[in-house]
User: Which sequence fits this backbone?
């Protein structure tokens, strides 16, 4: 992996980790309204391990790094979040294969693979009031803008806007998956914590990308 490619990957991973750690309380509070309230904290626990070990990983490709993150999250994140996020990164790593960086095609392929993994693992899809409701519109916007020739910063800004709108649109939905589904109609009128988490991460990535 070239130094510039590694720098871009580092920016993405460290921005995601910092966003999750900094917003753990916020995400947990959102999750507590209709879920079990552990979303922010359990995810933070896993990402803190990733950050602590990240610099010691001597891995040659983007795919290898993503697979290592997936394995770490699957092992260290409790509840349903561990298998979901672990699967997402493992699938993304598989899609990256031997890629030397994160170009437009690689970014879209990795994101789509991660989404497919989460869908299969959780049996969820758009409309079920999960993080998928924000991830899919974000991926669609990212792909559309990259295909149109926008640079990474503009594409990420569009993805962040789409993710935020989609996260807000989960409020009137009835939860069909996860702990929130057990609350039935009480989930209506609440924001899905996972979808909000996805929106915040894309917003932070959009802010950070121009500084790379």
Assistant:
């Amino acid at each position: 992996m070239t130094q510039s490619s590694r720098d871009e990957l580092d920016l993405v991973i460290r921005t995601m980790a910092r966003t999750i750690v900094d917003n753990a309380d916020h995400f947990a509070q959102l999750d507590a309204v209709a879920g079990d309230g552990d979303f922010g904290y359990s995810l933070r626990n896993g990402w803190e391990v990733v950050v602590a070990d990240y610099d010691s990983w001597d891995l040659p490709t983007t795919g290898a790094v993503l697979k290592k993150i997936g394995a770490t999250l699957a092992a260290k994140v409790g509840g349903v979040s561990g298998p979901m996020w672990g699967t997402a990164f493992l699938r993304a790593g598989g899609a990256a294969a031997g890629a030397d960086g994160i170009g437009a095609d690689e970014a879209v392929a990795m994101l789509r693979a991660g989404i497919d993994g989460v869908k299969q693992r959780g049996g969820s899809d758009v409309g079920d009031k999960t993080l998928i409701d924000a991830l899919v519109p974000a991926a669609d916007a990212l792909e559309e803008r990259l295909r149109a020739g926008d640079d990474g910063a503009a594409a990420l800004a569009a993805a962040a806007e789409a993710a935020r709108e989609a996260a807000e649109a989960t409020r009137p939905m009835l939860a069909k998956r996860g702990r929130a589904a057990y609350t039935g109609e009480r989930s209506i009128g609440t924001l899905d914590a996972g979808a909000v988490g996805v929106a915040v991460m894309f917003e932070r990535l959009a802010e950070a990308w121009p500084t790379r």
